Amino acid sequence: MVVSKIKTQAEIVDPEKTKPRAQLLLGGARMKKTTLLLCLGALVSLSHAQLSDPEEGEAEEHVDLFTTPTTKMAAATSDFGYNLFRQLAARDPQASVLLSPISISAALTQLSMGASTEAEKQLYRVLRYHTLHDSQLHDTLRDLLSAIRAPGKGLNSAARVCLEKRMRLKVGYFNEVEKQYGVRPKMLTGGARDLKEINEWVKQQTGSKVDRFLTTPIRRNIGVVPLGAAYFKGQWVTRFSQSGKRENFQVDGGAATQIPMMQQDSYPVKLGFDPDLGCTIAQVPMQGDISMIFFLPDDVTKNMSLIEESLTAEFVQDLSNQLHPVQVDLALPVLKLTYSTDLLPLLSDMGLSEWLAQTDLVKITAQAAKVNSVHHKVVMETAPEGSRYAGSATVSDGQTLPLIFHVNRPFVFLVRDEPSGALLFIGKVLNPRDLA
Ligand SMILES: *[C@@H]1O[C@H](CO)[C@@H](O)[C@H](O)[C@H]1NC(C)=O
């Protein structure tokens, strides 16, 4: 895949010195032309004339994006995730949200194994698999899931299909899913036991972190219930020396709320400023080749629509290549976030309404089978621990101004597996207390 990319050197004018101090990067992403600048704080004045060199602008460069089956699969699950996130964010623009979409990809893929060819095609389109041309699709997904769940990455996720027994189920489907994904679809008998068993299974799969997955007993005639759950607690590469101090988190249209923060000077991150999105973006490395990417708008705002709309696997991959390694005064909220929702209404908005009206799950049952909910519950935590200490205040690249990145107002974040590019978690936090 070719992404046209412009790299231009420019100068940041330092009132004290006259020599160039930093390189600014300009990049064009396919979906949306986006300019990334390394932002050295408000003190720096930029000359836009210096940033657009028409000759270099013609240069095109091949970017290695998603070249293996696993990374292509990761891109597909991520794009499904960004679409799901957009739908969820649009459902209530005033609400904080949190998702681990890959668990939903996994659950719906298990379901697709029971579908007719036509129904499978419809599901694949929404899951973004139609772009893959992968004859080993299930093996590829299984490999990706096993890679991102490796110990040391901090992710526990679970996906399963539950089916009502009275539908007269075909045992072949159960065996096939179990063989492929190591999890046997659950037969529901309709009663209090179902709730207890599902909740216990989810709890066990997530290291006891996702508790009370279902809160209301499953009705009879429940039909088909794909479910996904996840817990994430990663470890930073670089630890935070200060943690727990309560600081203001400014909320749009309300009083500031006090939340515990972790802070560290001279913290190594990758940083960029995107003037089109009006936000600064920081990628903070975690152990196990994971990173957390924060999109922090310049203003205190609930309106993240520009950021939400820009998110694609390719855009984020581009970002990851273009952000600039720097050391910053970093402050992040100490988070414990929980979120639970039924994603079924979103799936119909994403192009599955016809499919949901007539699911055509011929390999599961000869009867009409209705998907009744797609339950999703996720929990994630951040803590100050990390294996390394931050360096001293000496900074590289002639950077002399202290950069500040304090996540103390509404933000969007991603948790991403770097080797594959897979999106593990995505959230919009308007007020951390919304997700308590
Ligand atoms: C949010 O921001 C976008 C882009 O700036 C704007 O078009 C839209 O009207 C805003 N939405 C609301 C609800 O203010």
From TrEMBL:
Superkingdom of source: Eukaryota
Cellular component, GO, one term: extracellular space
GO molecular function: serine-type endopeptidase inhibitor activity
SMART domains named among the record's database cross-references: SERPIN (SM00093)
GO biological process: negative regulation of angiogenesis
Coiled-coil zones: none
InterPro entries reported for this sequence: Serpin_CS (IPR023795), Serpin_dom (IPR023796), Serpin_fam (IPR000215), Serpin_sf (IPR036186), Serpin_sf_1 (IPR042178), Serpin_sf_2 (IPR042185)
Serpin domain boundaries: 82-432
UniProt family annotation: Belongs to the serpin family.
Protein name: Serpin domain-containing protein
Organism: Aldrovandia affinis
